[in-house]
Amino acid sequence: MHIAQGLMKVINVNKLTSSGCHVKIWIADWFAQLNHKLDGELKKIQVVGEYFIETWKAAGMKLDNVEFLWNSKEINSRADEYWPLVMNIGTQFKLPRVQRCLSNYGPFQS
């Protein structure tokens, strides 16, 4: 995440929480590992995730109605639901179809 994204996150989260919203921020540790960030070392990735949280706090994010969720923890807590769904999707869709769908979200890199 670059500085503008971090600061905009603080501004937008503070607007939401001051309006009474409860905000959940996902820390995508498994996705970072999947994309081989920080050499795919989960412990390093989680340390950086903690740094993000501390940086948002230092930038003034009000945490009264903010909850941080880690992909790895959340997926593992409902693994019996998550992994059958992944397998179901994986068996129903072929790679070319997935690539066509992903093009809606940005350039696909193989």
Automatic annotation (TrEMBL):
Gene3D superfamilies listed in its UniProt record: HUPs
GO BP terms, alphabetized: tyrosyl-tRNA aminoacylation
Keyword annotations: Aminoacyl-tRNA synthetase, ATP-binding, Ligase, Nucleotide-binding, Protein biosynthesis
Catalytic activity: tRNA(Tyr) + L-tyrosine + ATP = L-tyrosyl-tRNA(Tyr) + AMP + diphosphate + H(+)
GO cellular component entries: cytoplasm
Recorded superkingdom: Eukaryota
Pfam family, one: tRNA-synt_1b
InterPro entries, sorted: aa-tRNA-synth_Ic, Rossmann-like_a/b/a_fold, Tyr-tRNA_synthase
Coiled coil: none
EC number: 6.1.1.1
GO molecular function per UniProt: ATP binding; tyrosine-tRNA ligase activity
Biological role: Catalyzes the attachment of tyrosine to tRNA(Tyr) in a two-step reaction: tyrosine is first activated by ATP to form Tyr-AMP and then transferred to the acceptor end of tRNA(Tyr).
Family: Belongs to the class-I aminoacyl-tRNA synthetase family.
Protein name from the UniProt record: tyrosine--tRNA ligase
